[in-house]
Amino acid sequence: MLKVSQVTFAYHNKNTLQNIHFSVEKGAHTCIIGESGCGKSTLLKAIFGLLDLDEGSIYWNDEQVLGPAFNLVPGHDKMKYLAQEDHLMPYTSVAENIQKHLSRQQADFSAQRTEELLEVIDMLPFAESKVKNLSGGQKQRVALAQVLAKEPELLLLDEPFNFIDNFRKNKLRRNLFNYLKKQEITCIFATHDSTDMLGFADQALVMKEGKLMANDTSEQLFNFPPNKYVASLFKEVNELELELFEASAEGKVLIYPTEIKLSENGNLTAKVIKSYFNGTNYFVEAEANNGQKIYFNSTEFLEASATIQLHVDETLLQQRKVKD
Ligand SMILES: Nc1ncnc2c1ncn2[C@@H]1O[C@H](COP(=O)(O)OP(=O)(O)OP(=O)(O)O)[C@@H](O)[C@H]1O
């Protein structure tokens, strides 16, 4: 189990991690998500032991993770950390790059282990290719196989899929996270992409400006986002004044565009501004009578300036009130 307790860290007096507190169970997959610069990479580095904390502590099982001031070779030996930049050997083959990272115990069945890892990253046909001839996304996959080679107890991945195209990403994510579950490897990964979080993380940590804003399952965060920042990580979201639905109501409510329906007996009146075709339907920008913008999906094209009735489910209006 990983225990991160009240961790605070500053780069040159600039607070980068503030009072971060959470734990991760053995074998669980946890994602760290948040806008660029919020401190995701810094948190991964702290967990791996690359930073000397200003306050707080980090424990992997019963062992405290200590920073470079206490370790000649920084980095915890039960963990593997894959940074955003890779450290591959360009003039050797993909297979050799992986073999180099296998542990001594695995030397006897090195070819079999290399093949297994090549399968996880979906690169069997590239085993003998030189790394220098690979694309950015392919190099990223080889770097991933390298950190898996030593069978770490805790794997820390920083944006592991950012150079990989969507077509490959889905298969790679399924392969990787199934493999990690099978091997009972605990994994913490930083990402910008909510599809990494929704499908593959047991637990999601949302960060903003160095603080931990939410720690929950991704389903819970999607269905009941505590604020607009969290909801916006998933997709575009409307933060609507409740007075639009009931004159005397106060406060705001978070509603995703797919949850607003065109309806003759709607509870919201609006005027269409523009319809954008998005392949399956139209993404419509409209304006409520208090001037607030409303975004929703429609199966039909709606003419600009048309007055329309929209409907939002009453239960959602209750459940999605914004908490301060
Ligand atoms: N070595 C460093 N020295 C000084 N400041 C740094 C250093 N590394 C990161 N920072 C700053 O710390 C803050 C957090 O950076 P970090 O890389 O952890 O964010 P991030 O959430 O991983 O961002 P991204 O998603 O863009 O990778 C940023 O303001 C960044 O500029």
Concise account of the structure shown:
By secondary structure, this protein is an alpha+beta fold. It has helices spanning 40-48, 94-99, 110-120, 136-149, 166-182, 194-200, 218-223, 228-234, 314-319, and strands spanning 2-11, 14-24, 29-33, 55-60, 63-64, 79-82, 154-158, 186-191, 203-208, 211-216, 238-241, 252-255, 261-262, 268-277, 282-288, 293-298, 307-311.
3D structure, described in words:
- This protein folds into two domains: 2-227, Rossmann fold (3-Layer(aba) Sandwich); 235-319, Nucleic acid-binding proteins (OB fold (Dihydrolipoamide Acetyltransferase, E2P), Beta Barrel).
- With 324 residues, it is α+β, with helices and mostly antiparallel strands.
- The mean pLDDT is 91.
- The chain contains nine helices and 17 strands.
- A hairpin with a 2-residue loop joins β9 (203-208) and β10 (211-216).
- The protein binds adenosine-5'-triphosphate (ATP).
- Pfam families: ABC_tran.
- One of its GO terms (molecular function) is ATP binding.
